[in-house]
UniProtKB/TrEMBL annotation:
The keyword Transport does not apply. This is UDP-3-O-acylglucosamine N-acyltransferase. Its EC number is 2.3.1.-. Residues 19-85 form the UDP-3-O-[3-hydroxymyristoyl] glucosamine N-acyltransferase non-repeat region domain. One of its GO terms (molecular function) is N-acyltransferase activity. InterPro entries: Hexapep, LpxD, Trimer_LpxA-like_sf, UDP_GlcNAc_AcTrfase_non-rep. GO terms for biological process: lipid A biosynthetic process. The lineage of its organism: unclassified sequences, metagenomes, ecological metagenomes. Keywords: Acyltransferase, Lipid A biosynthesis, Lipid biosynthesis, Lipid metabolism, Repeat, Transferase. One of its GO terms (cellular component) is membrane.
Length: 344
């Protein structure tokens, strides 16, 4: 593909020789002839100066730094689109592998691909051009829209609903029972989890993440949500459209996460909360109450040397006593003020 063809396909502006051949994407530091990279700011300016890439995607104000470029307001986004064009996914042949296990009552579109070892249970519906990879499982009565990809060893439990273009990566589990138990004296009795999991269009679930089915109502992951690896979404949760959850984050049951929310890595959100649209929860933060106003929220202590951390931890444990002493000093000061005014 020429640089001019790539510019037309991505909607970017063109600077320099449009006949340059581009056959791959690469980082600025590792690029060579035929590669295109991207540049977004001063942090990589040294790499840009030394890059051997044939072209770079960047903003208009940086176009003079290279001889050949694609111009875009959002270089990272255009880089993603270029990468999809230059590195298309491997096509998988339509049909059901002889070593797949597909129930006679299942409906599998003729254009879908079902790999060896995959299981499609009775009543499941597999939409057009879906890929069910090796050893993946689609449970009974689950329904997949068009162009879904269920990767190796992923499990879709029975009666789940997936929209179009949903990706579930290897080892992820959609629709397992939520953590619901009723106390009976010293023992716990399981509460049946009767809801479903609903994944909207263009949802992506990372490897080894889990989305539990609802106890009574459905667990809903709205359209465009992106969930990283090793994320836990508990029963009855609702994650609003185009929100993102990074690795090792977790949300407890019955919490409503708004639209366009960012939950950074390792963050934990308690159950039965409401998180406002557009909220950003920073890494390792613990959310213990509703967030009604969108903002950037953080908690926890930053990294320090072990010696500093121990000293700070000791002082933290002394805060209550220090507060009592401060209140006592304030009381004594207030009591002495009338006498001081009388003496003056």
């Amino acid at each position: 593909m020429t640089l001019r063809e790539l510019a037309e396909a991505t909607g970017c502006g063109l600077r320099g020789d449009g006949d340059i051949r581009i056959d791959r994407v690469a980082s600025l530091g590792n690029a060579g002839p035929g590669a295109i990279g991207f540049f977004t700011g001063d942090r990589h300016r040294d790499e840009l100066a030394d890059t051997r890439a044939s072209a770079v995607i960047l903003r208009e104000d940086a176009a003079g730094l290279v001889s050949a470029a694609l111009i875009a307001d959002n270089p990272h986004l255009m880089f993603a689109r270029a990468a999809r064009l230059l590195h298309p996914e491997r096509e998988r042949p339509a049909g059901i592998h002889p070593q797949a296990c597909v129930a006679s009552e299942a409906q599998v579109d003729a254009s879908a691909h079902v790999a060896a070892g995959a299981v499609v249970e009775a009543g499941a519906v597999i939409g057009p051009r879906c890929v069910i990879a090796a050893n993946a499982v689609v449970g009974a009565a689950s329904v997949l829209g068009a162009d879904c990809r269920i990767m190796s060893a992923a499990v879709i439990y029975p009666d789940c609903r997936l929209g179009d273009r949903v990706i579930v990566h290897g080892g992820a589990v959609i629709g397992a029972d939520g953590f619901g138990f009723a106390r009976d004296g010293e023992r716990w009795e399981k509460v049946p989890q009767l809801g479903r999991v609903i994944l909207g269009d263009d949802v992506e679930i990372g490897a080894n993440s889990t989305v539990d089915r609802g106890a009574l109502d459905d667990t809903v992951i709205a359209e465009g949500v992106k969930i990283d690896n090793l994320v836990q979404v508990a029963h009855n949760c609702h994650v609003g459209a185009h929100s993102v959850m990074a690795g090792c984050s977790a949300v407890a049951g019955s919490t409503h996460i708004g639209r366009g929310v960012t939950v950074a890595g390792g963050a934990g959100i308690n159950g039965h909360l409401h998180i406002a649209d557009g909220t950003v929860v920073m890494g390792m933060a613990r959310v213990t109450h509703d967030i009604r106003n969108a903002d950037v929220y953080a908690s926890g202590t930053p990294m320090a040397t072990a010696r500093e951390w121990r000293r700070n931890a000791a002082r933290f444990n002394q805060l209550d006593a220090m507060a009592r002493r401060l209140r006592e000093l304030e009381r004594r000061l207030a009591a002495s003020e009338p006498d001081e005014r009388k003496d003056s």
